[in-house]
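Subject: Protein entry, chain in single-letter code together with its fold tokens

Area: Proteins and the way their chains fold up in space.

Attached in line: The record itself begins immediately under this heading.
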Amino acid sequence: MALGRAYSVAVTGVDGQLVEIEADIGQGLPSVSLVGLPDTALQESRNRVRSAVANTGEKWPDGRVVLALSPATLPKVGSVYDLALAVAVLDAAGAVPAERLARTVMLGELALDGRVRPVRGVLPAVLTARNAGWSTIVVPESALAEAGLVDGIEVIGADRLRSVIDWLRGEGDLLTPSRVVPDTERPGGDLSEVVGQDEARWALEVAAAGGHHLLLTGPPGIGKTMLAQRLPGLLPPLSETESLEVTAIHSMAGALAGEHPLITAPPFVAPHHSTSAAAMVGGGSGSARPGAVSRAHRGVLFLDECAEIGTKVLEALRTPLEEGEVRIARRDGVARYPARFQLVLAANPCPCASAREVDCICAPLARRRYLGKLSGPLLDRIDIWVRMHGQDGGAFAGGTAESSAMVRERVAAARCAAVRRWQDYGWTTNAEVPGHALRQRFPLPEAAIAPVESALRLGRMSARGADRAIRVAWTICDLREGELPTAEDVLLALNFRQRGAQ
């Protein structure tokens, strides 16, 4: 009896766990058994691995081969284990030395001819191996740029199983990643291209400075989508930690660019209004894949024509908006994906979407029902509401408006002020500060808080809405470089919340 061993990584959500793969060659009729809660794709790897080893020129053992993946209670999904399975069998057969193999993690799917194919989730798998103290990891050659984003571990790439076997025997070298140049381009256009809409532009600046959620309503063609697309251009670039976090999510979604995988700019995700709840928050059979809310992590989620989106889909946004995380429960466990994003909603005021309100042919009940899909609890989580109106000829033919670069400077200064204020508590934007901290640790003067108290007494807003108005007031204060919000700042914040009801 001979025993071989190799290691790989199981990724659930953006969290990984090391998997030990043991290969036992015993007496009996030639067969391959796979144990350790494998799914269908992994069960089929028995045939892929056997053909890949044979077509590489190595001899497959004649006896009974048992492959065990530990921990045995952890469900194993996908084809990422193929390379480690093949090497474990060769180790058990004595075909490769165990010296290098004992300190190396293997990732990759095998083709029948021995080619190493790419797999999803390489970046979180490499992060898991590094955090577990491993010194070397072998990944598919096509994923080398992605894996090379991680420091503190030796990353090498292979295009064929033959190359891995030669490297284990000390007879050849594998590929190493080249220095990746981050893509710093900011898609989405410039804010100077938007004509007029001074109030909406100001609301967009406040939303960018504080990380607030935004609702834009108005007739079609007025600039709602243009404004939303330019919001990522006002946000500061992602930090190194945030870049890896966002890139890991897109790696699990299989949406990374091959040559420049590192995401350094805030992502902009705009799903179609016919999207399903699973596509919005994540899901799917087997391994739960990240949805639109997670792919928009640290960026912007834009829902155009939000009144046309299904009610269940909209209500599924409640938990991510409040907690900044999505938990997808499956029979075999829970996949967690971060989902801290800025939500921008855009909608027409009624089904007929007339350019002028006087031309509307919708009955009052139809107008009320149209935006009624946006429930009270969901609207309560929106910080800024803006009703956009048409522009006169003078505004359309006017001069050039402020560019995104000019507004971005003010946004960056306001965000720096917020970081200095909240850094001892672990918050980075005003939108992240919990309500109890605003009331107890950073209370506003009675004169400044009086408008909020009045709105609460009259039942015009909930306690959660009051907290959000105070957060917006802090952002307005930061934009004017003030020390403490005044009554005027609070009134401006309340005005943002009351615009949606008009």
